[in-house]
Structures are given as C-alpha cells and as structure tokens.
Amino acid sequence: LWDANKAGYVVKKGEKIPLTIGITDNAGQPQVGVSIKFYRGLSNFRNAPGSSTNDTLAESYTLLEPVSPASDAVTQKYNLSPTYWYGTTDSNGKVQLNVSQDSTTGLKTEFYAVIVDNNVSTEGVGGIFTVLTSPDVDTAFRWGHMPETVEGPDGVTYTRPKLQSEVPSGVGFYNKNNEYWAHPTAVQAQTAGATGCDPTYQPLLSDLQALYNKYPNTELETTYGLPLSSGRNWWAVDLSSTGQYQSLNLSTGTSNATTSSTTMQMQACRTTPHAPQPATIELTSSVFDEAGQYV
Predict the structure, then answer these.
(1) 10 and 108 in contact (C-beta within 8 Å)?
(2) Under the phi-then-psi rule, with left for phi > 0, alpha for psi from -120 to 50, and beta for the rest, what region is 154?
(3) In this structure, what DSSP letter does residue 51 have?
(4) Which contiguous run of DSSP H or E holds residue 129?
(5) How far apart are the first and last CA of the chain?
(6) In a 10 Å sphere around its CB, with 0-12 CB exposed, 13-18 middle and 19+ buried, how is residue 22 labelled?
C-alpha cells in the first residue's frame, strides 16, 4: 500500500486503507483508554488544469469505519474546516480504522490523529484512491491505475492512449474523465514524429474493427479505462479507396471517412509496427516498348 514516491498509501477506488493509531508513554508502553480525535484534510488533484488544486464536492467525501474499538461508520467531509471523529484506544493502546473514498475521481487526502488532552498530533498520512480512467504518470490530472497496454486480437498489443502532455506540442486535446487526451488532426496522425506514434505503429481500419469486435460497446472503457465516446472516433492509418482519412468509433463500431485534414480524433498505437503498406502500383507487359511507352 505504501508508496514512498507518492508519499502516501495507494489503493484503487472501492478499496480500503487500514490505519492504526497507537498511543504510548515516554517509556514506550501502550496507553489504554486515551481519547483521540481523527480528521482529514483537503482532497487534492495530482495536477490541475486550472487554479483550483483541491476538491470539496461529494466525490471527495471519505468513509471512516472504526474497526477496534468498533463503532458506527461515519462520512467525513472537508469544506472550510475539518470534521472530527472521536474515539478511545483499546486494550493494546490502539485505534484501528478503515478509510475509503468510493466516489473518488482520483484524489489524495491527508489524514491526522490528535490526542484530545494535550493536542499532540501525528504528521499527516496521505491516502490515494486511484481510478481506472487515468494513467499513472506525473502529468496526469488525477491519480490513476490505467493499464499501460491493451491486449488486442491476433496477438496485437496496443499502448494506452497518450495524454496531451505526453506528445509533441501542437497536438490538441479531448477532455474526458478529467484528463486531457491527445487529439491529433488527420494530417498530424499521418506525419512521423508529430504525435508520439508514427504511422508504422498505427492500426489499420481492419485492426480497429478487430479490436472493437473483441471489446464491443464500451468494454474498452470498463476494462481498461479508455476514454470512449459516441462522438469520438479513432484514426486508422490507411486511407479509403478514394483517398479519404478513415476512423472508427470504438464504442459503437461505426466507421467514418473524411477529406478534412484538420479533423481531430483519438489515436491508438500498436506496440509493434504493422507490415508495410503498398506505396506504388505498376502495370507492365512483356512486350512493353520502353522508348514509345506503349505495347
């Protein structure tokens, strides 16, 4: 649970963080029946696109469940000031608690304990509740655990989509599930070095169709946390027979083609390059006349 790099206990949304408050005297002996109060601080984003760095809405509420001594669970909020829970140490000089944040959007919350009689306090202990819909990267806006890869059909593996902060400058973004996802134009997707995924690693339309068939409807979002939307497609690297840019909606399975080079869509990326696509076509004859260019 403890992650020194993140300075907190890390669990997934829906899981609980067990906390133990221990009271001892100067000789290190457990102190029984000591009154303590437990409270939480603000819930903070990992990063924030705006000026606000914290969340006081319902998704930030935490549930406190006293385990020993046992008592009723309580919801703790933080707005302008903390709310306190009061308890008493057990026969081992301890209070054991579980805390959870089941509506979290991927937040970090500090927890504190104080001895009531003398106001001796612990340092804050960070609790991080991660979400599937954010990747675990330093530039993400929320704390997340999105898998780094998606297992596609036919042995093809895809990387998770990249955040705008992970790709070269000039690429737009799509705001979904509290993250800014890279949202390249058609011409950027076709340009090596422009999006962090060169064309040889981008899927063909048939690859995207096979991926959708393996994970129909919204399964890619529920299983891997991918930012799907009925209004957003994913680029295919191959052009249509009429030279149009092709894309597929990974939540509906419908395809689209456009002549607009400035249209923006999401981008999938393979971990291995696909076979080179034919780039030229030639028609010849065994009686070809090189000088006259006719047969």
Answers:
(1) no
(2) left
(3) S
(4) strand 125-130
(5) 76
(6) middle
Residue 208 · residue 156 · CB < 8 Å: no
Tokens 């080179």 belong to residue:
276
Measured CA to CA, the distance from residue 62 to residue 68 in angstroms comes to 18
**Distance separating alpha carbons of residues 231 and 128, to the nearest angstrom:** 32
Order of strands across the sheet that contains 269-270: 149-151, 157-159, 269-270
Alpha carbons 54 and 44: distance in angstroms, whole number: 4
pLDDT tens digit string along 64-90?
999 999 999 999 998 778 889 999 999
CA dist 220 to 78, 151, 247, 251, Å? 34, 10, 17, 8
Task: Using CB atoms within 10 Å of the CB of residue 55, give its burial: 0 to 12 exposed, 13 to 18 middle, 19+ buried.
Answer: buried
User: What predicted TM-score, i.e. pTM, was given to this entire model?
Assistant: 0.90
